[in-house]
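Fold this sequence, please.
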Amino acid sequence: MKLPKQIKRFCPKCKTSKIQKVDQYKSVGKRGSLSKGSKIRIQKRGKHKGFGNHGKLSKPPISKFKRTGAKISKKTTLRYQCTECKKYSQQRQGIRTKKVEIQ
């Protein structure tokens, strides 16, 4: 998908329509992994009667499921910088595309 470098759109900070620069937002760092302490805590809860993870740790990893990786593309988040106030604002919904090319 091809996008222009600058787009005229509404700035929520200035509350006016101005020309804004377009960037692609990139998330940084890993998320969602269990640390060693939390794994041990789950195992301790599972030893008592009536408590525990109810077999969460005994299931196979997600990569073994049938529909893993069915979608080819990821949703991209675009970020706009106002040329007047220099504040950033993100788009409301991501666009599902394989490649974003900013010209």
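The domain at 1-26+72-103 is CATH 3.10.450.80 (Nuclear Transport Factor 2; Chain: A,). The longest helix spans residues 36-47.
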